Amino acid sequence: MTGESRPPDVAAPSRRRVLTAVGGAVAGAGLIGGRAVHAQTDTDVTPTPPSTPSPTPAPPAARWTRRYAVGEHAARFLTVVPVGDEYVLAGVAGEHDDLRGLAVRTDKRGQTRWQRTYGTVKSGVADGAPHPDGGVVLAGGTNLDGSSPFAETPLSADPWVVRLDRGGDVVWTRTLQPAAAAGQADALVRVGGGFLVAGRRRERRETRPRPWVAYLSPAGHRRWETTLGSEDEEGALTAASAVDDAWYVGGSTSPVTAGGEQPSGRDETGLVARLDPDGTVRWRWSPERPRGSRLAALHADASGVVCVGNRGFATDDDGRGWHLRLDADGGHAWEATHSRGPWNWLDGLAALDEGDGYLLVGTRERTPEEDDPNGRRGTWVLRTGPAGEVRWVTTYFEGDWSHGETVHALDEGFLLAGSTETDAGQAAWLVGVGDVPTADATADVSHRLDALSRAVPPAADDIGLGVLVGVGVATLWRRLRDGE
From the CB of residue 190, how many other CB atoms can be counted at a distance below 10 Å? Predict the structure, then answer.
């Protein structure tokens, strides 16, 4: 007995059609490729603007959040690099002796395309930029202090630059400053025909780190490098931005103390410098009264450079967010400070289209409740006008604490990246705020099932196909549930 045969006018369904149909059913059951929105918008603090704010709508709500885990390791994002209509999110995974550079490519909805770690032990990524031939270039350091990467430069550290192709494979890596005692890269921006990388350099074991900047070719080779200031100063450059032939770097310096001891925060002074393409320092600016100040992010335009950082953190418990503009000749155009204590810190800056102002991002701690020594920490965002006037201010919370490291502006919304608390400790975190693309269940399921269908052997029988579909859907459910 041969069994019943299929009528001749009914074609056997292809593997791809079967998988797509299953994907549609799974999508209809509620798979969305990311976690439910947990971020809470907190507007319980009335803004105190530097000048009268213009009437604007209330702060936008978070539409979705994504967590990105690397096994059981802690992870955090420090930069968002746009690649077409997708992103490469980069930072640090692990801690102590198992620190690695982290990169995750996502679609515009924050859904993972690929996720990799890079570098030798104690490596990390601090910044990145698109490469003109595709992919991205990431900058950071190797042999870092695993307990606090990018905070203090150990004698073993080296600046490190890596180029990745579209699929996340390494095209080349460069370790800079081979003759120096130590160093690391804290900022990178695409300029002219290459990249400007900035950070710190420790020329000899007995000297302290000094602000350092280098110009790299598209292949990552040094064309020139220089340190800023004298040997009586130590410090680092933690921000870079450029427009045409005006290249800006920012950070802070401190006087070198007797015996080479770590200087106090009170003596730290913010620094901004404009460089010509040949490395000549056109001008250098610092505030007249230091009292603890540091620049964390820059945005250059035709009129000069807008800076964000913090000041007063050595004399006040909470310090103040710091926002200022310098014109192209180094003149001080305007300045504003922001504070939403008991503790807050600004780290990132994004310019809005058509000169409509800026988004500032950092971390804010709420006032502790009852006998708690610390309050919840959330991602602090300020929307300002072109001259630093506050339009709105709010904090996005998820769990007991989350930290905002950088912000990327979109047409009608923005992305926040940093880290958030998890049961395992800390996960890299991305938040879509405002009118941003939302999770498309069918598109994401189809994307994964299409890849699965191509992996099914052509000779798979009905039972084998069913097993593969079942395993694939179970795996897909776990990956989408976990926000991959």
Answer: 17
Asked if residues 55 and 47 have their Cβ atoms less than 8 Å apart, the reply is no
- Judge contact between 163 and 170, C-beta under 8 A: yes
Question: What tokens were used for 343?
Answer: 């503790």
Write the pLDDT tens digit of every residue in 370-410.
787 788 899 999 999 999 999 999 999 888 889 999 999 99
Residue 24: helix, strand or coil by DSSP?
Answer: helix
Measured distance CA(85)–CA(62) in Å, rounded: 20
d(CA 190, CA 215): 10
User: pTM for the complete prediction?
Assistant: 0.81
Specify whether the CB–CB gap between 343 and 365 falls below 8 A.
Answer: yes
Please state, as a whole number, how many other Cβ atoms lie within 10 Å of the Cβ of residue 294.
Answer: 27
- Tens digit of each residue's pLDDT (9 = 90 or more) over 412-464: 999 999 999 887 788 999 999 999 998 654 444 333 433 443 444 444 433 33
E strand or H helix at 296: strand 293-301
Distance CA 312, CA 4 (A): 83
CA atoms within 13 A on the CB side of 39: 31
